[in-house]
Amino acid sequence: MTTQTPARPQLINLHPPSADMLRLVRDGLEREPRQLPAWLLYDAEGSRLFDQICQQPEYSLTRTEIALLESAAEDIARSIGSGVIVEFGAGSARKVGPLLEAMRPSAYVALDISAEHLQQATASLQIQHPSVPMLGICCDHSRLDALPDHPLMRGKRRVGFFPGSSLGNFTRDEAIELLGRFRLLLNGGPLLLGLDQPKASSRLEAAYNDAAGISAAFARNLLERLNNDLKADFNPAEFRYEAVWQSRESRVRMALISECDQTVSIADEPWAFRTGQPLVTEYSVKYSPEMARKLAEDAGWNWCRRWHDPDDDLSLHWLEAAD
Length: 323
Ligand SMILES: C[S@@+](CC[C@H](N)C(=O)[O-])C[C@H]1O[C@@H](n2cnc3c(N)ncnc32)[C@H](O)[C@@H]1O
Prior knowledge:
Elements: E1 10-13, H1 18-29, E2 34-35, H2 44-53, H3 61-80, E3 84-88, H4 97-103, E4 107-112, H5 115-128, E5 134-138, E6 158-162, H6 172-185, E7 191-196, H7 201-207, H8 214-229, E8 239-246, E9 251-258, E10 262-266, E11 269-273, E12 278-285, H9 289-298, E13 301-308, E14 314-321
Parallel strand pairs: 1-5, 2-12, 3-4, 3-6, 4-5, 6-7
Antiparallel strand pairs: 7-14, 8-9, 9-12, 10-11, 13-14
The structure holds S-adenosylmethionine.
Residues 38-39, 42, 47, 50, 62, 89-91, 95, 111-114, 140-142, 163-164, 166 line the site of S-adenosylmethionine.
């Protein structure tokens, strides 16, 4: 008997065009402090570097969340029920495995901004779970008004999954808007939301500035990406990377700091950077259980329950759409 390799899952590509990217970069450079949307960090190289960050000893979030999912998946499935699992910002899709086993969903749909990486992620997940039909959608989920009409989702209950504390990249107002958007995209279905919690600043700053320099390379790759995709001429060596815990905002701020007065060209437009001027590459807001509950309720969700790891470092929150 021969065993058949499952077909590669389909990929629907809705990546924003470069004209949109240029507009977002201009808007971001006009902010004070300068800040670019976090999704720009994730081209193919950025996604590869992020996977390396997840393996660094200082970055425990991925290992902790996977262990929590492995131990709690059966309980989560019993509580939340099943349907089509829709994962937002799936990355390498290494966390959903226990949910696929426990929920036995009718399909798995992975959304991510990084097309090539997403294609590889769904292809290797499909080999591990050949009986679950899969689909990839490359998109900016913060701008999506509806999921594409597709037979795998038609008439099916949707179960949202948003792990990795990716919601922390957004300010509170943006996070409320995003959670409201997910409520519509999920058509009344529940959301399992993974959020990292505040902890000692030394731990958090080390997690986002690992000794091997992978977090720094990940941030500097954003400049390489702008060079490649938007005809910019950044010299990444002229920017220093830093990750600082800002306790008042309950967030880590990651930024590239200009090492000198310099003028950079982006799509033939000059942008001056002063010595010491930061370009924020991303924030990572940390949510206590109380903050998470309030945020969810403000975004139109009913907070039902949370699961957490033994050290209570992070939580998986179960949310149901409020009527
Ligand atoms: C912090 S990583 C988390 C990856 C994975 N979910 C995990 O938990 O390890 C964020 C992921 O979300 C994707 N992403 C970031 N912003 C996005 C956006 N606006 N729309 C869609 N995907 C996005 C990135 O490409 C990346 O794979």
